């Protein structure tokens, strides 16, 4: 298995992350366990900040909190000087509870409810990324009732089809997100937003998809967004001060993945911005981006305990672990691929071809199809790498399985940042109506 961040193997053959022996982490916290490498998260944040500083452009790097949203994560992001993108009242609430500066929060989503808009307005949010005409009108009306004028960006689809899974591709016309540039709705939206009295149009937003490796999609998006901005400037006299280019920068899950360095993505984008936006009048716009996966993805490892197995001669050997699609639904959703290692025997040669199954009552509950491992037996620890993004944040309680704890590791110290759910948590919102109250049956 590729060793990400601070991961290494110690003299006893144990996988060590952030200076913490995973065998001891299991003793202390149990499994399944999400382990987050703080050093790697911070270095990724710094890589983004430094690459943008080097570009000379005015910028904001907003961490897309949907990838992994906890109060401790909000703290790290704040300390590293990033902004934050939220897509729901829950993410906004988490950031606010962590004391994240609200003026550095951007609110996304294709169906923000009036309650969410109101909550964000009352909090003094930095910017709304408006997705559609209904939202534009509702936001303007709520802001008018509060005598406010929030900053907004309009989300547009620039007609770029990113080379990624269709469920995480968002830049094309046939998408639930945004106003399309090609069919004229984006232009109409700019005119409408500009005419409204209670929103302040800063510019536009474009996000073409996620887990993208090539820079050409981003470069074409910049070119199209710039051409659109030029048209709007020349025909309507409206100039954008902010261009948000979204997230989507890919990471290495397996050896099939070939991501670029953060600095290479940023360099490609900022060079394209300078080239295409210099055709417009006035200063270059501020550039905002919203990376999620590339900040936390490879900083996460999930630790499981191996349990039963089922060997079907000449077909396949299933090795089951104590988690599965409830803590990582990405294989079921996107056929995502992962690498793993037996964490308590990480130097042993991987010689047995197995498939790693979860414990849910669901045939699709698989974590990895066909992986060479060092003959896993019950009691071994399996570490699945690169689970920091869209794992904890997409976890569920299917089969009433308790969500795992999350620990943050750094320099040999581990701290729980999310407690393991308890049985009480599982039933805490259940209510038994009075008419179902158990009565004693007498005969
Ligand atoms: C609007 C928006 N911004 C940012 C992101 C973060 O993307 P990623 O985690 O791929 O960087 C997403 C998710 O794809 C998104 O939809
Ligand atoms: N949840 C997706 C990414 C979606 C990004 C949000 N638009 C994944 O796990 O890859």
TrEMBL record:
Molecular function (Gene Ontology), one example: diaminopimelate decarboxylase activity
Enzyme superclass (EC): lyase
Catalytic activity: meso-2,6-diaminopimelate + H(+) = L-lysine + CO2
Domain Orn/DAP/Arg decarboxylase 2 N-terminal stretches: 41-296
Cofactor(s) essential for the protein: pyridoxal 5'-phosphate
UniProt-annotated catalytic positions: 361
CDD domains linked to this entry: PLPDE_III_DapDC (cd06828)
EC number of the protein: 4.1.1.20
Record-listed N6-(pyridoxal phosphate)lysine modification sites: 66
Pathway: Amino-acid biosynthesis; L-lysine biosynthesis via DAP pathway; L-lysine from DL-2,6-diaminopimelate: step 1/1
Binding site for pyridoxal 5'-phosphate: 248, 290-293, 390
Keyword Lyase attached: yes
Pfam families xrefs: Orn_Arg_deC_N (PF02784)
Keyword vocabulary terms for this entry: Amino-acid biosynthesis, Decarboxylase, Lyase, Lysine biosynthesis, Pyridoxal phosphate
Annotated signal peptide: none
Binding, substrate: 293, 330, 334, 362, 390
One of the protein's GO biological processes: lysine biosynthetic process via diaminopimelate
Purpose: Specifically catalyzes the decarboxylation of meso-diaminopimelate (meso-DAP) to L-lysine.
Subunit structure: Homodimer.
NCBIfam families: lysA
The family this protein is said to belong to: Belongs to the Orn/Lys/Arg decarboxylase class-II family. LysA subfamily.
Protein name (database record): Diaminopimelate decarboxylase
Lineage of the species this protein comes from: Bacteria, Bacillati, Bacillota, Bacilli, Bacillales
Protein's gene: lysA
């Amino acid at each position: 298995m590729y060793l990400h961040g601070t991961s290494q193997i110690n003299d006893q053959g144990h996988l060590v992350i952030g200076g913490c022996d995973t065998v001891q982490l299991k003793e202390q916290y149990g499994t399944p366990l999400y382990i987050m490498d703080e050093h790697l998260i911070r270095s990724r944040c710094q890589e983004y900040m430094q690459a943008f500083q080097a570009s000379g452009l005015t910028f904001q790097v907003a961490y897309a909190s949907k990838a992994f949203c906890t109060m401790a994560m909000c703290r790290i992001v704040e300390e590293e000087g990033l902004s934050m993108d939220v897509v729901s009242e829950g993410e906004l609430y988490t950031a606010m509870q962590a004391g994240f500066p609200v003026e550095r929060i951007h609110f996304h989503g294709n169906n923000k409810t009036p309650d969410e808009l109101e909550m964000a307005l009352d909090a003094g949010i930095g910017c709304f990324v408006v997705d559609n005409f209904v939202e534009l009108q509702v936001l303007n009306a709520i802001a008018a009732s509060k005598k406010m004028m929030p900053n907004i960006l309009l989300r547009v689809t620039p007609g770029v089809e990113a080379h990624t899974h269709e469920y995480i591709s968002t830049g094309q016309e046939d998408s639930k997100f945004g106003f399309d540039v090609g069919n004229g709705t984006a232009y109409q939206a700019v005119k409408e937003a500009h005419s409204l009295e209670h929103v302040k149009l800063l510019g536009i937003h474009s996000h073409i998809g996620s887990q993208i490796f090539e820079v050409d999609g981003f470069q074409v998006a910049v070119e199209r967004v710039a051409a659109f901005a030029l048209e709007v400037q020349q025909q309507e006299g409206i100039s954008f001060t902010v261009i948000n280019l979204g997230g989507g920068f890919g990471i290495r899950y397996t050896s099939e993945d070939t991501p670029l360095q953060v600095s290479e993505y940023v360099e490609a984008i900022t060079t394209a911005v300078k080239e295409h936006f210099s055709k417009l009048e006035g200063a270059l716009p501020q550039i905002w981006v919203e990376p999620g996966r590339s900040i936390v993805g490879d900083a996460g490892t999930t630790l499981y305990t191996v349990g039963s197995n089922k060997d079907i001669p000449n077909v396949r050997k299933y090795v089951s672990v104590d988690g599965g699609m409830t803590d990582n639904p990405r294989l079921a959703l996107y056929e995502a691929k992962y690498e793993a290692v037996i964490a308590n025997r990480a130097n042993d040669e991987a010689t047995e071809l197995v498939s790693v199954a979860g414990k849910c009552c669901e045939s699709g509950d698989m974590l990895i199809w066909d992986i060479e491992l060092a003959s896993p037996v019950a009691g071994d620890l399996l570490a699945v790498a690169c689970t920091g993004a869209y794992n904890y944040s997409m976890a569920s309680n299917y089969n009433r399985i308790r969500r795992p704890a999350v620990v943050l590791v750094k320099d040999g110290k581990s701290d729980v940042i999310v407690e393991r759910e308890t049985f009480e948590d599982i039933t805490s919102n259940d209510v038994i109506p009075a008419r179902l109250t158990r009565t004693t049956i007498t005969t």
